[in-house]
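Technical annex, item 7. During the second reporting period the consortium partners agreed on a shared format for inverse folding records so that results from different sites could be compared directly. Each record opens with the tokenized structure and is followed by the designed sequence. A conforming record, contributed by the partner at site C, is shown below for reference.
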């Protein structure tokens, strides 16, 4: 299964040392993952991550030494101290990748990033300090099942019981400039009903401000990537706005219209974000820019 995972085409693949591995098999799993991450990086995978065991368990998986480990996913983050501990361990374990902050010499290769799983009321309540806990934090992940357990609530198809938590996580990421905001797992993945559920969850998560989603099966990848990527219509609109905005700036115009709708600075900012995301998703935005190069601000 580990070897098969290298054939995926994904932004990030996370190898699990936590819930999917029984206590007696954790040392074996750790050795297998370290061996895997010594292999050359797979072409279709941008980021190799490992979900370690929670800090409270005392199992120090973050001591992993593997050249192609990009990210450590820390479960059950309840406070900033959890991330302080992980940061201290990886700095001690891999000092060349995590030099002393007072040292101006850049690290080589890049430091290991940290993704924090928010799974409890305590973690949700401490988001501001968690987001500022370490310079290596690159995002937050919402873990719905453990959160539901902690609050003694039941997950429903509408996901309305998670609205506050999901919105708080997205807001915290934006407020602290964390690039990754990862939504809950879709536990349905089989058949047409599973695909429809996944599509609905992706649309809802994107609407709340998440820019990614946890997946548990390869069949979920294509649907999710398509849902979170900008649509052709969004890209066309964004390119027209960006081109028109440049011409409006040249003419000294702060606000203008496109197709009868007002365009001002926040709208232009959104359009630029869509263009950047489209380029990151591999779209040939240059074609749209050439097509709409004569777009004028109305």
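Designed sequence (site C submission):
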């Amino acid at each position: 299964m580990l070897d098969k995972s290298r054939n995926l085409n994904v932004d990030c693949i996370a190898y699990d040392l936590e819930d999917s591995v029984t206590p007696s098999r954790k040392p074996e799993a750790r050795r297998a993952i370290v061996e895997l991450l010594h292999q050359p990086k797979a072409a279709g995978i941008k980021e190799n991550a490992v979900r370690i065991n929670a800090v409270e368990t005392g199992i120090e998986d973050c001591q992993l030494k593997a050249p192609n480990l990009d990210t450590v996913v820390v479960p059950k983050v309840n406070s900033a101290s959890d991330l302080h501990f992980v940061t201290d361990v990886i700095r001690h374990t891999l000092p060349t990748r995590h030099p002393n902050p007072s040292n101006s010499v850049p690290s080589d290769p890049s430091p290991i990033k940290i993704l924090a799983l928010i799974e409890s009321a305590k973690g949700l309540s401490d988001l501001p300090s968690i987001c500022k806990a370490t310079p290596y934090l690159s995002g937050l992940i919402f873990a719905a099942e453990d959160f539901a357990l902690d609050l003694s609530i039941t997950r429903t198809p509408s996901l309305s019981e998670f609205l506050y938590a999901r919105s708080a996580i997205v807001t915290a990421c934006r407020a602290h400039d964390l690039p990754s905001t990862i939504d809950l797992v879709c536990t349905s993945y089989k058949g047409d009903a599973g695909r429809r559920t996944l599509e609905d969850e992706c649309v809802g998560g994107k609407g709340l401000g998440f820019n990614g989603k946890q997946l548990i099966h390869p069949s979920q990848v294509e649907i999710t990537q398509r849902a979170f990527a900008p649509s052709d219509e969004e890209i066309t609109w964004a390119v027209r706005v960006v081109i028109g905005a440049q011409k409006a700036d040249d003419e000294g115009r702060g606000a203008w219209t496109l197709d009868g709708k007002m365009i001002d600075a926040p709208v232009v900012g959104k359009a630029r974000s869509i263009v950047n995301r489209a380029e990151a998703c591999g779209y040939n935005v240059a074609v749209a820019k050439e097509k709409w190069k004569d777009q004028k601000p109305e």
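The radius of gyration is 21 Å. The mean pLDDT is 92. All partners now use this format for quarterly exchanges.
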